[in-house]
Amino acid sequence: MNSNVNIVEINSLNDNQLIELSKKNTLSLSLVEMKEVQKYFKAAKRNPTDVELETVAQTWSEHCKHKTLTGNIEYAEETSKGKKVKKYSNLLKETIFKATVELNKKWCISVFKDNAGVIDFDSKNGVAFKVETHNHPSALEPYGGSATGIGGVIRDILGVGLGAKPLANTDVFCFGLPDTKYSEVPEGMHHPKRIAKGVVSGVRDYGNRMGIPTVNGAVFFDKGYMANPLVYCGTMGIIPKNKAFKEVKSGDLVLVVGGRTGRDGIHGATFSSVELDKESDVSAVQIGNPIVEKKVLDTMLKARDLNLYRAVTDCGAGGLSSAVGELGEKTGVEVQLEKVPLKYKGLKPWEIWISEAQERMVFAVQPKNKHKILKLFKQENVEATFIGKFTNDNKLTLTYNGKKVADMSMEFLHDGVPKPTRPAVWKETKQLKQKPVKASAKVLADDMKKVLSDINVCSRDWIIRQYDHEVQGQTVVKPLLGNSIHNFGPSDAAVIWPYTVVKNTKKAVVLSNGLNPEYGKIDTYKMTTSAIEESVRNAVCVGANPEMLSVLDNFCWGNPNKPEILGSLVRAAQACYDMSKGFEIPFISGKDSLYNEYTIDGRTYSIPPALLISAMGVIEDVDKTITMNFKSAGNYIYLVGLTKNELGGSVYAKIKGLKGIVPDVDIKVSRKLMKAMYDAISSGFVEACHDCSEGGFAAAVSEMAFAGELGAKINADLIKTDFQMTLTEKLFSESNTRFIVEIMPENKEKFEKTLKGFVFAQIGTTESEQSLVIESKKSKISIKTKIKDLQKSWQRQLLG
Amino acid sequence: MKKIKAIIIRTAGTNCDYELKSAFEMCGAEAERIHINELIANKNKILSYDILAVPGGFSYGDDIASGKILSNEIKNKLGDNVKKFALSGKPIIGICNGFQILAKMGLLPKPEKFEQISTLSYNDSNKFECRWVYLKTEKKQGDTKCIWTKEIPDVISLPVAHGEGKFIADEKVLKEIEEKSQVVFRYCDKDGSKTQYPEDPNGSMNAIAGICNDKGNVFGLMPHPERYVYALQHPAREGYDGVYGWGKQIFQNAIDFLK
């Protein structure tokens, strides 16, 4: 073998020594896994090279393999109804994916198998959507971590099928509280404000330079994310249906295109599969250069349309080892590592093979196109290099300057990871209704402003305006909406009308999301049902058809080796199944990020579990989409849906230190109501529609008013509730399945007819006087607040 | 009649080329996105077009300063023909990064001189700003000098999206372009009156959002007319003829001018 390559003594090691080796080299392999590796090499009668051992670690990492969600789980549940035990041999397949298979939607083109999920757009095109997490890197190096997060998910879209053209980005963050005292920040960590600002700048600089609008997102602040921020980045793209699949054949050549390989991002996949501590190595974070990626985007779509390659995938976690390994899984592959272009000299073969240097794509090219494809890339100064070929021996063979440095079976690499069984438990905690909450008009007016200026409700314009959310000219429902340029409110969803790609199309793509970790602190099942419903509700608000929606899951959880943490994950996965089946909305892709923990002085802090649901759907007629701001005075205001006494996990409860019941979803009612709302909006009966979520009715109606520069008069006694509720509860309860709707008087009859059989009430009117008046004769309360004051509360300083 | 041909110059980091192509096409022109390498390899190719457009984006990452590298590349390698194009009176437009490039190579405000005498620098807010703004169309006796802005209402709205959009020139240059009515658009309030941040997104001298040369055929602006060719693209969905946005009229003007 080669002097650049070390043989790692593994065959003679005992259990403790195996664990030691795994830790020392950031392999993140468990003892059982290390023993499996030992077994393989004992049978081969030799020790592995460092290249081989590293390849196994990358391929088997939680990040690449999702061992928890696809592993064996023994789940035990303890509720008031008794004890229940359930065994899963693959949680993902038996919940989320199972729903998709059972729903069997014809418009799903490619789900859960490629770099992104793909659904029908029209007869010729599909749309692809993927959301990734980049949590660990963003904790250590916020700017670089988030920039490479967005860069990475864009490459997922470039690497789906034969490559899709990115149309929009989304980003969702969970941060610690920006006003945290410096003395409370754990050693070795950045202050939450610094993390937040760095992450926003990273997404801004990468996303803007890529020319992809960042159109939808959310930010959630909670002290539980101080040491472990969450950074979700998503990209949606469009792809001709006849380019939606890839195939590698023996004899095809391996082409690496784009950025050069350096020492950045070594061990990214494995380090993100363990918890962080103050020793976590910042060199695991990659260094991004968006212009290199933009050049790859421009040229590869040209090569795609000329049919110059047969398959493509991106170099993400695990670098070439993952990308080339995946493409060659069914054939076998030989790579000459010395051919890989390097940023600088001195990289060892194993470093070349697993480096997560950015902006690289790997292609499978038929030998006949060898020269054509090189020429095409060269014309636009894009580096492209052949580094090997796909074989038919089902083996991974790596050489360095002619000497073999790795020789392993693909089967062992891809299917050899042992499947341990993990215990999971969940014990029901009782949620009790809080005592009736009453307050005077003055206090309520004050509380409304407090809710609007709460860090989890207030305006995100400081972030949104740093992103070019209009580039490509296709963002027709924007993240900030209003009747004029001076006034704006938060949009429920974004709508992209891809008229520059698909000529004369009237179709559009809706993107929305749902996330509420506050509910998960009490019950992850309800957090999940609420998040899914919120994402659907948000899309319906702008005019999307709920029957044409698909969703993505992104689980960010703590250490799954702890039974109660895994139990809460199982509950959430089960809720995904129930919602997906009940709503007939398929999951098309997903991702999990586990081990979101931080250890300080031997104490481990786990994040509050967070499930992000991202929804994508196709809108038939973009002209029928609507926005959330009130349109004109003298219109009727309706509250559609039932308001329940559900203050649990609400913003109001957080401010006031209250407990209570977490919002539930009645799947059957909700599904039908969503459809009825879609019918009303697509028939043109609705002027404006806004979702009631964080902050409840009070926040939502305020936003509609100040975004539209109009007042409103509300009779709160007319709000439909399940039991008797105080005015305070009506204003701030965060019950799901509710919409505030503005209707022109002439559409009253038609609108009410469309919603016949559902709970709704005409509760007020829009007014030219710019005040929000909320009255309750029953409670003898009348609250009058100037729209300008509400707007001022909402537009408080966020991070600036 | 022969179709009018527009060229959209692109390079690494060009972003707004597809929507710009669509804008020209919906006005009846033929538009091609051509990489700078191709134009350098074939130096006379650029002269075969009727309209020249430099789109927005982050050419070469805006390293050094926004638009600086591409402006040098065009000037050093295609300078003679670009100057010829401008002096021939054929329409040229530079939008956002394109405006930065035209100003930095000196094609604006004085293509005859072809030397940099103005620039676009960091926004006063010191950050990237993406928002819709109001623009006052500068008119003398009811008409504009710039061939790109005929029939444009006194106040229109367009989106801006830039970090370096603050127009700066020395007093003499500023005085000259004002005297010669070369200011095309100014940031303003809803009714056309003076405004401040955030409606003026960058703190430009004299609130300048766009300028043209003395002849009126070369036009550079920070706002994006190509993002407002349909009423649907406006935040309140306003426009003309029920369907179109005022940005379309800007591209229509160049094509009508050539007819």
Estimate the mean pLDDT confidence of chain B.
96
- Fill in the CATH topology of chain B: Rossmann fold
Please summarize the sheet with the most strands of chain B.
Answer: 9 strands, mixed
The greatest interface between two protein chains, and residues involved on each side, is: A-B, 42 and 42 residues
Taking the alpha carbons of the first and last residues of chain A, their distance comes to: 56 Å
Can you list the strand order of the major beta sheet of chain A?
Answer: 11-13-9-14-12-15-16
So, CATH architecture of chain B? 3-Layer(aba) Sandwich
Write down the overall geometry of chain A. globular
Beta fraction of chain A = 15-25%
Structural class of chain B: alpha/beta
Oligomer state equals heterodimer
Low-pLDDT windows of residues of chain B? none
Radius of gyration of chain B using CA atoms only: 17 Å
What is the number of helices of chain A? 27
Mean pLDDT of chain A: 93
Helical proportion of chain B, percent range: 25-40%
Could you name the CATH class of chain B? Answer: Alpha Beta
Secondary-structure blueprint of this entry?
The complex is a heterodimer of chains A (800) and B (259).
Chain A: H1 15-24, H2 31-43, H3 50-59, H4 62-65, H5 67-70, E1 72-79, E2 82-88, H6 91-94, H7 96-103, E3 108-110, E4 117-120, E5 125-133, H8 135-140, H9 142-158, E6 165-175, H10 192-210, E7 214-221, E8 230-240, E9 253-258, H11 268-271, E10 276-277, H12 290-305, E11 311-314, H13 319-327, E12 333-336, H14 349-354, E13 360-365, H15 370-379, E14 384-390, E15 395-400, E16 403-409, H16 410-415, E17 421-427, H17 441-452, H18 461-464, E18 475-477, E19 480-481, E20 489-490, E21 494-496, E22 508-514, H19 517-520, H20 524-541, E23 549-556, H21 563-583, E24 587-593, E25 597-600, E26 603-606, E27 610-619, E28 636-640, H22 651-656, H23 667-682, E29 688-691, H24 696-708, E30 711-715, H25 727-732, E31 739-743, H26 748-754, E32 760-767, E33 771-776, E34 781-786, H27 787-794
Parallel strand pairs in A: 1-17, 6-7, 10-25, 12-15, 23-24, 30-33
Antiparallel strand pairs in A: 1-2, 3-4, 4-5, 5-8, 6-8, 9-13, 9-14, 11-13, 12-14, 15-16, 18-21, 19-20, 21-22, 22-27, 23-27, 25-26, 28-31, 28-32, 29-31, 30-32, 33-34
Helix pairs in contact in A: 7-21, 9-10, 10-12, 17-27, 20-21, 20-23, 24-27
Chain B: E1 5-10, H1 17-26, E2 30-35, H2 36-41, E3 51-54, H3 68-87, E4 92-95, H4 97-105, E5 118-121, E6 129-137, E7 155-162, E8 166-169, H5 171-179, E9 183-188, E10 208-212, E11 218-221, H6 246-258
Parallel strand pairs in B: 1-2, 1-3, 3-4, 4-11
Antiparallel strand pairs in B: 5-8, 6-7, 6-9, 9-10, 10-11
Helix pairs in contact in B: 3-4
